[in-house]
Amino acid sequence: MKFLALVKKEFRECLPWMCLAFIIFTGFGALLLRGKVLYEEGRRKEIWREEQVVPWCTSPISDIGPLLLLTALGLGLVMAIRQFYVPAFDKTWAFTLHRPIRLITAVHAKLFVAILGLTLSVGLPWTGMFLYAAIPGRFMDPVLPKVFWEGWLMVGLGFILYLGTAVSSLCQARWYTTKVCGLAFAAGIIFLAMAESPFPAPLVLTAIGLVVLGIQVYALMQSKEF
Amino acid sequence: MPISIEISPGSDTPIYTQIVDQVSQAIAKGSLRAGEKLPPVRKLAEELVVNPNTVAKAIQQLEQRGLVNTRIGSGTFVAEPGLRQADQNAMKTVSDRIDYLIGQCIHMGLDGPAIRRLLEDRLNKFKGPKEGDRHG
Amino acid sequence: MGEIVLQTRDLTKYYGRHLALDHLNLKIPKGTVYGLLGRNGSGKTTAIKLLLGFLRPTCGSSEVLGCDSSDLTPEIRGRVGYVCEGHPLYKWMPIGTLENFQKAFYPDRWDKHLFDEMLDYFTLSRKQRIRSLSNGQRAQVSLALAMATSPDLLVMDDPTLGLDVVIRRQFLQGMIHLIQQKGKTVLFSSHILSDVERVADRVAVIDKGVLRADCTLEQFRTSIRKVRAERTGSLPAGFDLPGTLHCRQDDSVTEWIVVGTTDEQLEQAFSQAPVKGFSCVAMNMEDQFIEFTTPSGNRRLFEWEERP
């Protein structure tokens, strides 16, 4: 009951950004995909004409990758700012926290909404696009399942940036000292995960990032002064 | 409410004294008659926007002066005139005020007889029972 | 004294090097309206935030309804209403949504009838968004939200700062309405003395982080007095009245502001003094407060010569 009330509030506050992210990702993603499909039709005609065809070196759906990453990161950043930075700015922290709840419940509600937002705005459209691309006959080159999970990893990186931004927002030090650490750490994880590396590494890095930043968020909320 | 009480916080007199004074005045003038019921403490407190304890204290003082009686379960009533007694503090306050007024009158140029006439005139305006003089 | 609902023990708070609160020791009994008085920046807000667990004390401790402030349980928070200066609320929410939000946290205590009545009295509609309300209207919503949770303890931190007299009166009415119910307590901080004088049972005066007074309103009002004496000659060098806060004089009259001095002490002090007689002048609460919180030896802005 209480958790639901908090979730509803957090969700409504982040909703405009979720919608924006959804529109950007789905809009541009669809355009990109359409472009690929048209190009694919062109390729088929060339094969008929037995001309030289350059095979895809990556799956066509992978080109959605950069857009997905940027949208996920953008949404994560903005949601964290809205949830953790703005309440200090408009002084509503005290109102939110003077509820008959444990502090941790307020944190859980925010995290839950962040995960939900990233899933609905980026993760689900991505799944839709992947399934569309994976329909047999859509593309000549196989659409690999690993690409699907890579996409979700990027959604996870968006959550990492969300946590890093939250840590930086909650930290009470000055920007030029330790306040920037949360963001810097998140950026580091993202960079390393995106760099070419053997399969488990990006996943492990993301997991490490989640744990470290997650613990930081909890710790900072417990000790923060409002 | 039979009388209107005006509270001025920020004056030199404490609020409960203001209430006591105004109720006493009303009883003396006859706006509050013997046996009339005063509003309950809660109601007075809400209307005057004053702490109920302050009102209770004022009622207590009025009781001490014999101006009102509280019957448990029924409420607070204006006492019969014969039962009222002036207490020393009240007499002192009244005397101080009369001194102040006399001083004002002298400044205005009134002499002794003129002051007495003024006092008589004002006394007649009071409708309450006075010695040897009853109005309907 | 009865059950204590709020208590502090040597509560101290430093912001960096600035001492905001210095070993505050307060005990607030159940059923009182407690007025926390102090100038701007005296430490009232710091004290309240520490009590409600929004700040961590540098040392010392505080308790609300028997529970330590740094670890208030949801049950305790559910019994405490909190209204703070500025009344920050979620700007995007319509009043109706905010009502549902609040209601969800107090399923057993929510007084729908009271909330409806208050909204009706304030002529506010549930469709209005918080951002479209004036400061005064937002304060009204804030009061209604707090009171409708049927709090056992209502804590208000300068709730009427910058608001007009009508709103101030409504807040006072709210406090009185609450205190009429058995077992309810109100703690509010204010520097509008006439409001405090109306509703407070007890007052505490905090000045520069230090508790200067903690007594009933009546004790405060009767202890601080102005004594005037017309001099017939100069007063002896060491002459002083017990409990003097300030002393001022002009050509013929000397005025003392004294605290807690009895009539007997005054009689005794003046018995040998070259004065024509002395009188105690009644003071209003504002003057009493000003005199009480002005440091001794502080010059007045104009005219009167301050006696060292």
How is this structure best described in words?
- The complex is a heterotrimer of chains A (226), B (136) and C (308).
- Chain A is an all-alpha fold and 226 residues long.
- Chain A has one domain (2-223).
- Chain A has 8 helices and no strands.
- The model of chain A has no long low-confidence stretch (mean pLDDT 87).
- With 136 residues, chain B is mostly helical.
- Helix content of chain B is 52%, strand content 7%.
- In chain B, strands 1-3-2 form a 3-stranded antiparallel beta sheet.
- In chain B, a hairpin with a 3-residue loop joins β2 and β3.
- In chain B, α1 crosses α3 (52-64) and α2 crosses α3.
- The two termini of chain B are 22 Å apart.
- The relative contact order of chain B is 0.12.
- Chain C folds into 2 domains: 4-208, Rossmann fold (3-Layer(aba) Sandwich), CATH 3.40.50; 221-306, 2-Layer Sandwich (Alpha-Beta Plaits).
- Chain C has 308 residues and is an alpha/beta fold.
- The model of chain C has no long low-confidence stretch (mean pLDDT 89).
- Chain C has a 6-stranded mixed beta sheet, sandwiched between helices. Chain C has a 5-stranded antiparallel beta sheet with strand order 14-11-13-12-15.
- Chain C is elongated and about 75 Å long.
- Chain C has 10 helices and 15 strands.
- Helix content of chain C is 30%, strand content 31%.
Q: State the helicity of chain A in percent bands.
A: over 70%
Structural class of chain A: mainly alpha
Elements of chain A, N to C (H/E): HHHHHHHH
The major pleated sheet of chain A works out as: none
Q: Describe the biggest sheet of chain C?
A: 6 strands, mixed
CATH superfamily of the largest domain in chain C: P-loop containing nucleotide triphosphate hydrolases
Distance between the termini of chain A: 25 Å
Tell me the span between the first and last alpha carbons of chain C: 40 Å
Largest interface: A-C, 22 and 25 residues
Evaluate the radius of gyration of chain A. Answer: 20 Å
Low-confidence stretches of chain C: none
SSE arrangement of chain C, N to C: EEEHEEHEHHHEHEHEEHEEEHEHE
pLDDT averaged over residues of chain A: 87
CATH-defined topology of the largest domain in chain C: Rossmann fold
The percent range for strand residues of chain C is 25-35%
Class inferred from helices and paired strands of chain C = alpha/beta
